[in-house]
């Protein structure tokens, strides 16, 4: 099983980024997925979740209306479109499986929001 995130970087407040998570080694189209982030010195924070078919999504209050989770099951890839970024969004972002035993997580991609 592999989950490889990309798309992070340094962006100014108000800017946008699109994160990708390319997966392999499991039945991606059958598994709900999520994004989790961890800021320096803080614990993990759940960000968003998407059902296996993509028809159901959920967001943390802190990102609702600014972030959009999506997936391409043909490409085994998960996305997170992030708009109107704030300094508080600075964190390492991880994609992770849901409801697998065990669950898997990628190595993360750093997002830094700073002027």
Short overview:
The chain is mainly beta and 115 residues long. The chain has no helices and 10 strands.
Written overview of the protein:
- The chain is globular, with a radius of gyration of 13 Å.
- A hairpin with a 6-residue loop joins strand 5 (44-50) and strand 6.
- The chain has 115 residues and is an all-beta fold.
- The protein contains no helices and ten strands.
- The strands form two sheets. The protein has a six-stranded mixed β-sheet, with no helix packed on it.
- The chain starts with a strand and ends with a strand.
- The chain has strands spanning 2-6, 9-11, 17-24, 33-38, 44-50, 57-59, 67-72, 77-82, 91-97, 109-113.
Question: Characteristics of this structure?
Answer:
115 residues; mainly beta; four-stranded antiparallel beta sheet
């Amino acid at each position: 099983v592999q989950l490889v995130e990309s798309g992070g970087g340094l962006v100014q407040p108000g800017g946008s980024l699109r994160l990708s998570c390319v997966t392999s080694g499991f039945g991606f189209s059958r598994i709900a997925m999520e994004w989790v982030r961890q800021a320096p010195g803080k614990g993990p924070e759940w960000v968003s979740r998407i059902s296996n078919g993509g028809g159901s999504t959920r967001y943390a209050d802190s990102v609702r209306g600014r972030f959009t989770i999506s997936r391409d099951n043909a490409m085994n890839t998960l996305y997170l479109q992030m708009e109107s970024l704030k300094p508080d969004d600075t964190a390492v972002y991880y994609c992770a499986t849901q409801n697998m035993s065990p669950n898997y997580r990628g190595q993360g991609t750093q997002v830094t929001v700073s002027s």
